[in-house]
Write a structure and sequence with these properties.
Blueprint lengths: L36 E11 L13 E2 L6 E2 L5 E16 L2 E14 L7 E13 L5 E12 L12 E16 L2 E14 L9 E13 L5 E13 L11 E16 L2 E14 L7 E15 L2 E13 L7 E14 L4 E15 L16 E16 L2 E14 L6 E13 L1
Antiparallel strand pairs: 1-4, 1-20, 2-3, 4-5, 5-6, 6-7, 7-8, 8-9, 9-10, 10-11, 11-12, 12-13, 13-14, 14-15, 15-16, 16-17, 17-18, 18-19, 19-20
Length: 416
């Protein structure tokens, strides 16, 4: 297996507006303007296809690096316990906030995959100096890597850190100058995946137009540099790349009951050594949120992104998809939610066919769908129960790349 062929391009700096869903996390703690929040919870999950395998994959057991590894479709029961602490306080025109979530995930059958999980976001924003709006935020996540497309599944916890500084400088009337800088780092716990450790740096700048009603348009240019600190260039991967992107970003109130948010841009990636891995093209993500009634919200998102493939981070792909996610607040304590998403991934880059590694030949295309429903019940002010189901399907034109997966979750959380 040529591990250095993997491209961890999902470093979060090529598209600052991208959404990255986290698997097996508790309900998100909103940054409410309350001085202090704390609590704990536990999530029970049943996963029907833990390693995202094709049903036709041969079953059996191998022993790579002394650890037994399943070959066929395997299910498991997973328990995630966590504790959280959050705060949000405002002093004069300065705001300080933070959310800290620490937990442990345990597998019933595959205990060798147990890991400690982290989800941290803390920052400050305010008018400083003078009328310049400044924001500084640090985020950290520690999550188990996805098993999709791995020939030999293994425990690899990916820890990502990012520090971002934003500046918004009023210039004249409704016009502002905006600038930002991000420092990003990704580290892998498995020595087999150390070639995917990366350091990233991103800078951006542009103009912002703000309407009297709070809507805004940003005209922004961005450059990102990524270095794989443990990687030596080979015919199938590079040790560094540079991305440039120009985009128009918008947050626009269409009516009192709906608004648009997203970006449209053009992305170009140039690799340090191998031009056959370069790519460029349009990229966009547009989300329309509609509130037809006070108790109902419908979010529709369409996107075309270029970079890491959705199920894995080994190859680069063009991903196009449409997502619909309605939420209905039945009562003040009970809400229902659903999600439906469908799209296609077309893998990019120049590779060779027939290699026993995680590299796909040009022409690979995957169709994917996901769907889910959930019920959230705030039984008491301090007690929350969340029940959900999610299904996933991938259909690929590559042998043994299809899979179906079904997961059910129950979360019980107490908090104050």
């Amino acid at each position: 297996m040529n591990i250095s062929s993997k491209k961890f391009a999902r470093c979060g700096i090529a598209s600052v507006m991208s959404v990255v869903p986290l698997v097996l996390t508790p309900p998100a703690q909103a940054e409410d303007p309350t001085p202090l929040r704390y609590g704990a919870g536990v999530t029970f999950q049943r996963d029907s296809n833990l390693f995202r395998r094709d049903a036709e994959t041969p079953t059996g057991v191998e022993t790579p690096v002394g650890v037994e590894t399943p070959i066929g479709v395997e299910s498991d029961n997973i328990t995630s316990s966590y504790a959280y602490l959050g705060f949000d306080t405002t002093l004069s025109r300065q705001r300080l906030y933070g959310n800290f979530n620490f937990g442990k995930t345990q597998f019933s059958r595959f205990s060798q995959l147990d890991y400690d999980k982290q989800d941290i976001k803390t920052g400050w924003d305010g008018d400083f100096p003078g009328q310049i709006r400044t924001g500084l935020v640090w985020t950290r996540t520690a999550q188990l890597a996805n098993f999709a497309d791995l020939t030999k599944p293994r425990r690899n916890v990916i820890t990502r850190d990012a520090v971002r500084l934003d500046l918004d400088v009023p210039v004249m009337a409704n016009w502002h100058i905006v600038a930002a800088g991000t420092v990003n780092q990704t580290r892998n716990s498995s020595t087999l995946d150390s070639a995917n450790d990366l350091d990233g740096r991103s800078v951006e700048g542009g103009l912002r137009y703000v309407t009297p009603y709070g809507s805004r348009l940003d005209f922004v240019g961005q450059q990102t540099n990524v270095d794989y600190t443990e990687r030596t260039p080979n015919p199938f991967s590079d040790s560094a790349y540079r991305e440039r992107m120009g985009s128009l970003r918008a947050l626009w109130a269409v009516t009192g009951a709906s608004h648009l948010e997203g970006y449209v841009g053009y992305l170009e990636r140039r690799n340090e050594n191998f031009s056959n891995l370069d790519f460029s093209g349009p990229s966009f993500r547009v989300a329309w949120t509609w509130e037809p009634a006070g108790s109902t919200v419908v979010a529709i998102t369409a996107y075309r992104t270029m970079g890491a493939a959705g199920d894995n981070e080994f190859d680069a792909a063009v991903t196009k998809a449409l997502r619909i996610a309605p939420v209905w607040e039945v009562t003040g304590k009970l809400s229902l939610n659903a999600q439906l998403e469908a799209g296609q991934r077309r893998y990019i880059g120049s590779t060779r066919e027939g290699l026993p590694i995680e590299i796909e030949a040009p022409g690979r295309e995957d169709d994917f769908q996901s769907w889910g429903v959930g019920v959230r019940y705030a039984a008491l002010r301090w007690l929350l129960v969340d029940i959900g189901y999610r299904g996933e399907r991938r259909d690929s034109n590559r042998y043994l790349r299809d899979y179906d997966d079904h997961t059910g979750t129950v979360t019980v959380q107490i908090g104050f």
